[in-house]
Specification:
alpha/beta, Transcription Regulator spoIIAA, Rossmann fold, 4-stranded mixed beta sheet, 17 strands, about 30% helix
Amino acid sequence: MTPDELTAALVRAHDARDELLAQLSREQTDCYRLFHGTVEGWPGVTLDRYGDVALLQSFHTPVDTPSTETVARFVATLHPAMPLIVNDRSGRGSRVANPLSDDLKAIAHTPRTVREHGIRFRFQARHAGQDPWLFLDLRAARRWVKAEAAGRSVLNLFAYTCGVGTVAAQAGASFVMNVDFAESALRVGKDNARENELPRRPRFVHSDIFPAVRQLAGIGQAKVVRGKRLPPFPELAPRQFDLVFLDPPRYAKSPFGVVDLVRDYPALFKPALLATAEGGTIVCCNNVAEADADAWLDQLRRSAAKAGRTVRDAEWIVPDADFPSFDGRPPLKTVALRV
């Protein structure tokens, strides 16, 4: 792609977001995707705004210098003082590999605050992990939670940095439990909670998801399986929640079980459903691009029926316009099931 072609693609993407950007400004949101390369003409590349920083990420091949300079000029036309951080994640394990100048390195490693729906979140362009601390494609789902959480108990599974839990607490949830296996992510979640004046402080549970959700569901978690002692885990009393949010990774394996959204979503869905109170709602996410939405929803309905629960209503939560669909398939599928 020539610099002129790239500039034209960036401008088209920005023009397509006119209505959304006006809405986000009204909602006091300053973090969003400026360019979604897979759909908008530059596969494997994304350009995001996080507050006062622009973040360009490449996942297939490194971005060459002329392209980086073109993106920097485009960003400068929108926000003249905004620095551009480039994270080349095209190498093994999606780890950031490219060096930065000293001034950009200082910016990239400095924690800062961004806003979404008026709620404050911590952000750092580079840190010990891989992904940004706030997943922008979940904005529409967090907006939905903000409208639904008041007075309800909320369980946030695969909480990562607890964006959903922070929103729920700010919206007036009666109780919020965030569960994640990564202690570093939960530390950011605690910082997010401290950034805001929350009516009630959320609970943070550092645990593998399987033993946590099995205990909450009343199934229980054995400490020894086939003569082998499993790693220690926090003991939790059975409890059902009015609202359960389930956002698993595509694949993850631990001594307690396997998360596999392609082959076995129900293995995780069933205990999460059983931890959902009768008359409550479970929000399920599937980030596998090739997954068919209707087939996946049918799978969830059948899995619920096998568990003795009925899906009374299903509401799709469509990502905002900065995450356009590819071939009619949204990049992230999220559905709220009232059970």
